[in-house]
Automatic annotation (TrEMBL), chains A, B:
Keywords: DNA-binding, Transcription, Transcription regulation. The keyword DNA-binding applies. It comes from Actinacidiphila yanglinensis. This is Transcriptional regulator, LacI family. Residues 13-41 form the HTH cro/C1-type domain. Gene3D superfamilies: 3.40.50.2300, lambda repressor-like DNA-binding domains. The keyword Transcription regulation applies. Residues 12-66 form the HTH lacI-type domain. GO terms for molecular function: DNA-binding transcription factor activity; transcription cis-regulatory region binding. Coiled coil: none annotated. InterPro entries: Cro/C1-type_HTH, HTH_LacI, LacI/GalR-like_sensor, Lambda_DNA-bd_dom_sf, Peripla_BP_I. PANTHER family: HTH-TYPE TRANSCRIPTIONAL REGULATOR GALS (PTHR30146:SF109), LACI-RELATED TRANSCRIPTIONAL REPRESSOR (PTHR30146).
Length: 349, 349
DNA sequence: CCACGACGGGAGAGCGCTCTCCCGTCCCGT
DNA sequence: ACGGGACGGGAGAGCGCTCTCCCGTCGTGG
């Protein structure tokens, strides 16, 4: 156990600044934190002393008494997976992650709060995470879960820890979250296909164990029922590009006359486009394709993908706001905020 | 300023556990941290008391005395950019980010160290970051910089803060880093094209203000010179897909006979492939394409991209190891570790 | 002219932990 | 049988900060 860092000299403390400024520790603290009124004259003296000594407040000491760490956990909860598997890469691939971080930072940074990155990929880790929070290492949690039936929301809720989810929880867990109006988003896609004159519309759905997958499929069914086609074809995919490719082939082999398809996410849509190209189907002439998410896959594919955009940055920013409010007052009611989606028209439909 | 969290009861402390176990605070600390020998009998009693009280050590208090936070900053340093610009999305897009995080975690997690995510997108933020470190909020820095002439490496180095870079610094800054043998990697690509019988080989280079861009172009020139073609054509791109697309068109308009091209990164290569497809050139029959990185773009493009793979996970893991060593002993010499690349043969060459 | 409140500043008690000292006990070797 | 060292445990200081409490000094109103 190292006692003290060799080579690194002792940093100036409040005490040092106080001595140098000829005031008490308390006064320096007041100036530094801007609490209460301090004589402008003294304020100046203290500020000079701070600058001169190069004082920077020690976070741990402050945390110890305020019980605030000014950092929150940014947790990605994913299914258990072998170490060498590219799953994790997939999780973070796509701009999704960046958009989340970007949105969070617009709110967190001005408040001086830092996100601590955590990957919850096993139940052991999930438990450890809850311990970490109880340890007061972090004030709260922003949780993005893509694990089927993730126990984490319930764990957090039970522990009474401030937390906000991206997307509604799988079960009836009392916890704050942000989400999009999934069905309305799907409507956008379906109505667009219909307005294009497509009459044989099908869907490539997401996995049934994800809320988004389920909601989007249900939305699709409802929307199609509204057009008198309650039995529109659907093939389930797994939200990956390869899955989309395979699903497209399956779909066409079962329903070769399909002329419009709603794909539950862009990555699968990209795969579907690849498959269509190889099968010699022209997009959008022979078959129109609409994706969901407006991820980077949408602009990486050819033709450019028409898709339903979710305002991820705004959602992330709202998550941060909800979380900070919850941290300020943990007795606060849980809340959920639902965002609207928009249709981004490109070439594929 | 909130005094104490309402609703949340006081957590058990060492003192509580000690009382409950009938031993001293020091003994409980020893058991919890596994330092020194403690009578197995007492150990058991203490452990039971810990479990019974639900004790979890308070991180801040521990940090205050050990001066270790057990968290490191994971900094992405990027050029300044307008708030609404998708730049950030681009930064984090692609699996690159995930591979870095994955690699880091394999080393950090077993040691109980957490990465704190930071985005350094302006000089103000960079300065703030250095302050944060001096504040002891984090023990060290893992820096991934894609900002041209980034001042951060120098700042960190001057401040004597433990830091490790991904990729060598732009200037002659004394700082630890991991990198790949860029030239050897480029050799792999060029030799492959040559072995395929290509005789009119060109390159789409990266920006000149990035070390990787420069190194790869220099490597290309050298390799081609080795084949008696010191003046092989090159067009500069900006590492984006659109840039690659444009560069490919430029290249073909200037050198229509090109039958092999080395592209300095996969994203540009993906763009190049798109352009070639639109221009009616068959890949690899008419023109062979080799990329660099083996990013997700390599498998998202058609035909699948032959590329030079950098072992990002291994590099990230090594960064973590270097950093932890540096944190343990800051007086340690700076070190750099260079990794080998491998050629991943797919369809495009 | 005095009482009173507002205000600016200081003193000091901890926050919860680690770690150095120190002390008692036991097991050696001589 | 005795001295010395190894070992296990306790006492207590102190990490650097915030915040409550208290006290002195004003300005103000009766």
């Amino acid at each position: 156990m190292t006692t003290s860092r060799p080579g690194r000299p002792r940093l100036p403390t409040l005490e040092d600044v106080a001595r140098s400024a000829g005031v008490s520790r308390a006064t320096v603290s007041r100036v530094v934190n801007g609490t209460r009124n301090v004589d402008p004259e003294i304020q100046k003296v203290v500020q000079e002393a701070v600058a001169q000594t190069g004082y920077v407040p020690n976070r741990a000491a402050r945390t110890l008494v305020t019980r605030r760490t000014d950092s929150v956990a940014l947790v990605f909860s994913v299914p258990e997976h072998p170490a060498d598997d590219p799953f994790m890469a997939r999780v973070f691939s796509d701009a999704f992650f960046g958009r989340i971080v970007g949105g969070l930072l617009t709110v967190l940074r001005p408040r001086g709060v830092h996100p601590v990155l955590m990957l919850a990929d096993s139940d052991a880790v999930r438990q450890e995470l809850v311990d970490n929070l109880r340890q007061q290492h972090m004030d709260g949690v922003v949780l993005v879960s893509i694990a089927p039936d993730d126990p984490l929301p319930a764990l957090l809720s039970e522990a009474g820890l401030p937390a906000v989810l991206f997307g509604r929880p799988t079960g009836p867990v009392p916890i704050s979250f942000v989400d999009i109006a999934q069905r309305t988003g799907v409507d956008l896609a379906v109505e667009h296909l219909v307005s294009l004159g497509r009459t044989a519309i099908a869907t490539i759905a997401g996995p049934h164990d994800s809320p988004a997958g389920r909601d989007r499929l249900a939305g699709f069914r409802d929307a199609m029922a509204g057009h008198g086609q309650a039995d529109a074809p659907s093939v389930a995919g797994d939200f990956t590009q390869e899955g989309g490719e395979a699903a497209m082939r399956t779909l066409l082999s079962q329903h070769p006359d399909t002329d419009g398809v709603f794909v539950a996410n862009d990555l699968m849509a990209q795969g579907a486009l690849l498959a269509l190209n190889e099968l010699g189907r022209r997009v959008p002439e022979d078959i129109a394709v609409v994706g969901f998410d407006d991820s980077s896959a949408a602009t990486a594919s050819r033709p450019l993908l028409t898709t339903v955009r979710q305002p991820v940055e705004d959602m992330a920013a709202e998550m941060a706001r909800l979380l900070l409010a919850l941290i300020d007052d943990p007795s606060q009611q849980i809340r959920s905020v639902i965002f609207k989606t928009t249709l981004v028209r490109r070439r594929s439909a």
